[in-house]
Amino acid sequence: MDLSVRLVALLVVVVLLPGGGEASIHTYSREPFREVGNAFLLSGGSEGIVADGADLAAPASSFIKFTNVTFWRTPESAESHTKMAHSTGLIQAILFEAADRDNIGGSAYGGQRSICCTPDLAKLEGCKQGQVIRRPSSDDPDWPIVLETHFSGNHLSVKLDDEEVRITKTGMYNLFFISCDPKLRGLSMSGKTIWRNPGGYLPGRMAPLMKFYVFMSLAYLLVMVIWSSQYIRFWRDIMPIQNWITLVIALDLFEMTLWYFEYLNFNSSGVRPIGITTWVVTVGAIRKTISRLLILSISMGYGVVRPTLGGLTSKVLLLGLTYFLASELLDIAENVGTINDISGKARLFLVLPDAFLDAFLILWIFTTLSRTLEKLQARRSSVKLDIYRKFTNALAVSVIASVAWIGYEVYFKATDPFSERWQSAWIITAFWDVLAFVLLLVICYLWAPSQSSQRYAYSGEVADDDDEEAQSLTKGTDGNVGMVKIDKDRSGGVSNAFSLEDEAEEDKRESALLHPFLVLYKTMAMLQKRKLLQKEEMKDRLQDFCAELMQETRILNQDGNLPEEI
């Protein structure tokens, strides 16, 4: 089974799953403990929480609540104890702020790191053997919080008392369930813990993004309104590339709106349904794919320098499909069912393919963009050349900004391994959305719908001073004005710029489209210059010819050649 079929099957299964996935209400379903040093440990979650500013007499607005937390041991472990034994296994829940991480485990004297208190450490530090080593915080002696429960007799399970811990200090909080009893190997846990901020159930790192998505939705809505007004106004002159720009704007607006409502639902209910999140990230993956293909197509000159991509179409679509699959898998791993403020290391294996494809796209974009610029320069299309130079500068700036930001992101994460700067971590995610928005604004500005859109798509920019260099007017033997074309050898400057057969074939087709219009334009410009043709008459004839030429180009035969009558 290939990758695409597996992905489709995964999406179908994920969307059809009943109920909701993990959320800020952390749910545990017989989660196994793992052995770490001399302890058995299970991570209960890590989230940034803002301090409760309300009166201590009022109900808590920031808290971590334990509900129906139940521990299960193996039958072998239970049978090793008698039915009447009082305490046959201790389990502790440790809740601490990231700044107090050094107060859990370890030795203050010998440098030995140990989570649980051993006989030797009991003599050195005075800790209780068989329990987690805990030292009081310098800010609050009641922290880290330790909650305990004991197995009784040979029972297979034990329930932790429901309890609510009020958060009075802003910070990154970590919860671990730990057992120091070697007989409890194979321990597992079920139940849930509820983590809440004053503004709702969103984890601290995600909370600012909800407001950010509101801002971005409004920004894209404004762009959509302005672009649509111009699109409707000049709908007769719309180029194919402008249709794709419209689609990208709509997808951006849709994605930002979906993200806001997904976060709003998460914040109010504490539940993050897997199906909804999957649809949101799928829309995002489609938007990112089409946006990159749009930039690549513009760089190739699609809709502006050439009417089609020709043989390159299949290659572009194949790259787009590959990028969509890589982006979809990465986004699913990062967002679906994700609630903790510390992301896992497993996503690294999904980041690498996505990063490689982005690098390949950038290389291809600038390679084709360079060829397009050379082509426009050889044709002396000054208007198009100016547009593409501005586009090139915008792309260069965005690539430089991306590389610089990636460097900052690596530095940010390397210097903050425990996510203590979680309150500003949302900027890492927001930057890429802002950069995409700015680049889209540049594209909208350069290719805004206007009455001259089709002229930019199918005509070259020719100056009056070049008319006599390209052609001359002579008198025929019958006294009529005739035109003698002076051929120019431009092949040396252009042929070397295109090494792909598909691009060369497209150049031939495009030359066939441009040649009749250029000849007519130059001839009429010379006639008007010599006062043999009125300006208004020239304008009317050019418009009529353009309409006929555009009609003829729509009936290209299957081989891509113009009919002989043209």
From TrEMBL:
Q: How does it sit in the membrane?
A: Multi-pass membrane protein
Give the range the annotation lists for the signal sequence. Answer: 1-23
UniProt keyword Transmembrane, yes or no: yes
GO BP terms in the entry:
positive regulation of cellulose biosynthetic process; protein localization to plasma membrane
User: GO CC terms for this protein?
Assistant: membrane; trans-Golgi network
Q: Which domain of life is it from?
A: Eukaryota
PANTHER family under this entry? GH17801P, LUNG SEVEN TRANSMEMBRANE RECEPTOR
Q: What is this protein called?
A: GOST seven transmembrane domain-containing protein
Q: Which organism is it from?
A: Leersia perrieri
